[in-house]
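Protocol step 4 of 5: obtain the predicted structure for the target chain.
Materials: sequence only (see below). No template structures provided, no constraints applied. The aim of this step is simply to have a reference model before the mutagenesis design in step 5. Sequence pasted as it appears in the construct record:
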Amino acid sequence: MTITVFYKLLAIFLTVGLGWVAGRLRWLETGAGGGDPARLLGNAAFTIFVPALLFRTTVRLDFASMPWRTVAAFFVPALLFVAVVYLWQRRTAGPGAQGAAAPSVRAISAVFGNSVQVGIPLAAALFGEAGLAIHIALVSLHAIILLSLLTVLAELDVGRHRAATGQASRLWPMLRQTLRNTIVHPVVLPVLAGLLWNATGLGLAPVLDETLTTLGSAVVPVCLVLIGLTLAYSNLKGQWQGAIGVGALKLLGLPALVLATAQGVFGLAGLPLSVVVMMAALPVGSNALMFSQRYDSLQAETTAAIMISTVAFAATGSLWLALLAWLA
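Step 4 output (structure tokens):
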């Protein structure tokens, strides 16, 4: 593990710690009945900052220059992993007291990595400019593909739960409401709008681009502070077993599947193989917590999974690097 990545991990913990202090000292509360600051901050991130980041990223995508074989070598096993974890959770856990979207929340925690704050300096330090270019190509599609898919699955689960509990009495009104909630959504709608804008070839006006850049740059610090706030306001007792399981899936299960698929099916080797495997091996990303906040499901477990996987990445990341060096 390089010193640059170690400093990034340390910065993550310090920022999360600041959020925890703010939560413990009640800095963000406005008095009696002032609401939950963690939920308020999560809603702001999910409805303002993340849509701005997704829209700008989608508009600026250059589909012609994408390394599509390498992209497929990462996303095909990642999407397969999402399907397996999601179906397994639907079969074994069910919504219960964890919320209707619990299977989707666990699936996003098991697949969505910290590809920016940890991933970018890791790729730059280990693989140089060529490896960083591949990593950035994966990052540009990371949230667009994974968040959009899991949003659809979560909304379907919520719709089914409403129908099962009598909140939606007819099939077609339930399906119509689910479709509307899926499209008019802080994740899916900016992606669709960005794809349409991208197809026009107009680009972004400088003022609009600067505005979106400013809003999008707030995603990482806001999410890290949100993790600290959630730690301060949540009771993590009883959450560690589930969090360790999700962390193990993210740090060990996903990179193993990506390695096997990228090498055995897509024939990747050398630098592209190393980049996609390390992309898969990254710790759980903070967007998973925003997702759990959005659907009011497993917030404490997701917070614990983020912290555990970030700490453990120092060891598991080194193991994957050693294995890749041996394979080379």
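Step 4 remarks: The domain at 3-23+47-327 is CATH 1.20.1530 (Na+/H+ antiporter like fold). Residues 119-164 form the longest helix (46 residues).
Proceed to step 5.
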